[in-house]
Design brief:
It contains four helices and no strands. With about 100 residues, the chain is mainly α.
Amino acid sequence: MALPLDAVNAASAREKSIRHGHPSTLHLWWARRPLAACRAVLFASLVDDPSARPDLFPTEEAQNDERERLFGLIEELVLWENSNDAWVWRPTRRI
């Protein structure tokens, strides 16, 4: 599955500039890995690309629509303020 890299990169850069309210900001590691990128990669590794499910998404248009929906989910998951928001995570449990 592809990733919405622009959204992931923007969220990762923003997350690295947050300097309060999270234990990871107590010490600045030389190679800190943003949680936004980790969330995006983990989600993408667990979810099949729609083209792998022709029984559910028989046409190219249906596959593209589902791919766009998944990209939207990833774009919401990578935002720092959505880390503990149950409403954002709820649709991912149905996949």
